[in-house]
Each structure stands twice: as C-alpha cells, then as structure tokens.
Specification:
By secondary structure, the chain is mainly beta. Helix content is about 5%, strand content about 50%. The strands form ten sheets. A five-stranded mixed beta sheet has the order 9-15-14-11-12, with no helix packed on it. A five-stranded mixed beta sheet has the order 17-23-22-19-20, with no helix packed on it. β35 and β36 form a beta hairpin. The protein is elongated and about 170 Å long.
Length: about 450
C-alpha cells in the first residue's frame, strides 16, 4: 500500500482528494441510472377465444410494465389499460407492441376463425296443403345457425318469433303464403335465409246435381245414376252397401225394390251428400227360357241341355263341326242380378284340365266368364284333343234369382261377346251363343 507522507513521517495533504471522491460518487450514480433504464416488459398477452366464428367478439388481455404506449395490430390499433374486446374482421397473428423512451417490445397470439355454419332453413311446410276455410293447418319448420327467425303471413300484422318453436297451427280463411326468415350472426354470409309455404283454401266441396234415369222402373230394369260437382272422389250407398267410385260420374243399378240412393262427395274442400229415389214396380222373375243361336259356321255353340220353363237352365258348350283344341274361353255380357252359377263340369279330357265358370267382378262385373284348358307336362304344352260334331266340351247350370226381375239375362247377338279357341294356333269368335230370358 502506498503511504503518502512527507519526510519526517507526517502524512502529506492532497488538495484534489475530495474532488476525486465526489467524481467517483457521481460516476456510480450515473452507472446505476443507466442500469435501471430499459425497454418495456410484456409479462403476458392472451386471447379468451383463439377459434371464434367470424363475427364473434373476443377479448385480448395483457400485463405490461414500463410502457408509455401500447398498440394491437392489425386491429384495433392503439390501446390502453389491460384488455380490449373487438369483433375481428380477419384472423391470423395479432401483435401487442409496448413502447417507451428506451425502445419497444412485442408479443404475438394467433387467432383462427372456426368454420362458420351457414344460416339455413331445411324444412318449411303447411299440412294439409289444401283444406276448407278455417281448417287447422300446421306450419312446421327447421332452422339452423340463426340468431333470430320470424314468421309472417303477408297481412301486415307483426311477424311471429319463430326461433323458440318449430311449428305453429293456423286457421287461414283464404289461400295464404307464409314467409319464414332466419337471420345469421352479424358479419356472417349469407346474412339471412328465406322460405315460403302456401296454405291453400279450397272451395267447399259441393254436388251440383244427382239424378236417377229413369226414376221409375219395372223390377229388373236398369237405372243410370249420374251426378255433377267439384269433388275428387265419389261413392254411392243403396241403403246397405257403399260402392267407392273414385272420379267416375255415373253408375248403372238394377234395384229389386224401391231404393233411396245416397251420393257422397269428398274433396279438399270437405264433403257433401245428396239423395235420389228410384221407384220399382214388382215384376219378379219366375222362370228361365233359352233361345238357341241361329246356325252358323263357328266351331262351337252354347246349347240348352235342360231349360224349359223352370228356375234352372243347364247349358252346354258343344262342337258344331269336328274341332281340335286344347283350351277355350268366353266372356259373355250378362245381367248378373237375375241368375247365379250353381254347377259346372268339363269334358275336355285328361289330364284333368283347369276349368272355371263364374260371374265376374271388378272389370269383369256383369260378365259370365268361362275358361277351360288342358295342362301341359311342365316341359311341353298340352296336346290338342279332337271333338266330333255334337261332342260336349263343358256345361254349367244357371239358377234364377227372382228379385232380379224379368227381362233378358244375356243375348249372344248383342255386342260384347268374346271367345277364343286354342289349338296349334289361336282363333277368335269361335262360340255361337243364343238368348236367355227371365220370364
């Protein structure tokens, strides 16, 4: 260690010593000041929802020390305090910048828009779509990604809130177009969705006329019921049975006694009914008689086996000349209320043939249907069978129904008879038929 002393051992006096000490203190203070001055510090920077939907609000929060100004980029720009809430128009990186006299610092958070559901109306219906005025009509709908929805009827009345429910019952008095509008969140595209449903009010279903022609008959005669109106479906009841007729506008009947017919009309506009009366003079059938067909060249004929004034008539299908066949069929128009089929048999040969005689129904109503055919072997069709002139092929018996009244039962000379014979080929119009009367 240096010892500044004068000669003789006494310490020497330094006139600048105090100045030097003061300078050292000042330098230390400056050094401390330089050490404490620094750029701002961002302690934290967060966002409460990093995946919002477009148009949603998010809140950015931060903790910063030593800053004189703050800025949040790309939006909203300069900020103050410890947080800010915005509805960002873009996603990506959001940068918080903190600045003071010594410089600036930054911190980043990333925002990514979630897939945005599109506002939509997937269903909007009116059931029934057409009905009479005042009928209850149910409006049903399904809406998605909407913040509000309204339902209006075009009348100028305030719209109904449609978001809290999915259906509504209305009672339109006239055809009405209902409009459903769903609004999306702000900033979403499209901004809204619209759908329409129509509740049509149909005119009242009405029968314009219902007549029976003629309205007075002899028992067994035919009556034509006819009508007009705006219904889509019709049916007629005779006091016992209701006959659906769909869109038909007439029906031929043969009442056995005085009858009141009721016509029912149904359509989108409701229903209606009217009645028509038919007066019947009793004329019950008592016997059957058959007139043979005139001789001709057809292969077969329908001839009487037993039909001479009784209540039954047995008829046979016979060959008029030598014939070869494996099957035969006939559709003969008949007044089906006057007779019934009570027995039948066939002599077509072996093996046992398929055979049927019956009064038809549906499209074959009021038709006597006869069919007979030999059966094949499964690997080949049946062979032909030969019949000599006068040989019987089949027979059947008809029994009188007295309530059907008197008059023709069938007439082979009238239009409508059809017949076929099957052999190696197919031949038509092969059966001569006479006339059967109920007397």
């Amino acid at each position: 260690m240096r010892d500044d002393r004068r000669a003789g051992g006494a310490p020497s006096r330094d006139p600048l010593r105090g100045v030097r000490r003061a300078a050292l203190v000042l330098l230390a203070l400056v050094a401390c000041s330089k050490k404490s001055a620094q750029t701002p510090v961002i302690n934290s920077f967060v966002v409460d929802n990093a995946n919002p939907q477009r148009g949603d609000s998010v809140t950015f929060s931060w903790s910063v020390s030593g800053a004189t100004s703050l800025v949040l980029f790309p939006e909203p720009g300069p900020v103050t305090g410890n947080s800010v809430t915005i509805s960002p128009s873009v996603d990506g990186q959001f940068t918080l910048g903190a600045t003071n006299a010594e410089g600036s610092t930054q911190q980043v958070v990333t925002l990514k828009f979630a897939a945005t559901p599109v506002v939509a109306i997937s269903r909007f219906s009116a059931v029934p779509a057409q009905a009479p005025a005042g009928t209850a009509v149910t409006l049903s709908w399904s809406v998605s990604a909407a913040v509000s929805a309204s339902l209006s009827d075009g009348s100028g009345a305030p719209p109904v809130d449609a978001l809290a429910a999915s259906s509504m019952v209305v009672h339109p008095m006239a055809t009405t177009v209902y409009t459903l509008t769903a609004q999306a969140k702000a900033g979403h595209t499209p901004a809204s969705a619209t759908a329409k449903a129509v509740a049509r009010v149909a005119p009242a279903t009405a029968i314009g006329s219902f007549t029976a022609t003629p309205s007075s008959i002899l028992q067994g005669d035919a009556v034509t019921l006819s009508w007009e109106g705006n219904a889509s479906a019709w049916s007629v009841n005779d006091g016992t049975t209701t006959t659906p007729l769909g869109p038909l506008r007439s029906l031929v009947v043969r009442p056995a006694s005085n009858t009141t017919y009721t016509l029912y009309a149904n359509g989108p506009g409701g229903s209606d009914s009217k009645t028509a009366q038919v007066t019947v003079t009793p004329q019950a059938g008592q016997s059957l008689s058959y007139t043979e067909p005139a001789p001709d060249s057809r292969a077969l004929k329908l001839t009487a086996v037993s039909c001479s004034g009784g209540t039954t008539c047995t008829l046979a299908l016979v060959a008029q000349s030598p014939a070869t066949l494996r099957g035969v069929a006939m559709n003969l128009p008949i007044d089906a209320i006057k007779v019934s089929v009570s027995a039948s048999s066939v002599s077509l040969g072996a093996p046992t043939p398929a055979f049927k005689v019956a009064l038809g129904s549906g499209p074959l109503s009021n038709t006597l249907v006869l069919g007979a055919a030999l059966e094949g072997t499964g690997s080949a069709v049946a062979g032909d069978q030969s019949f000599a002139s006068g040989s019987e092929i089949a027979r059947f018996t008809l029994t009188l129904v007295p309530a059907g009244g008197r008059g023709p039962v069938f007439d082979g000379s009238a239009a409508g008879l059809s017949s076929w014979l099957q052999s190696s080929g197919r031949s038509a119009d092969v059966i001569a038929v006479g006339k059967l009367d109920a007397n």
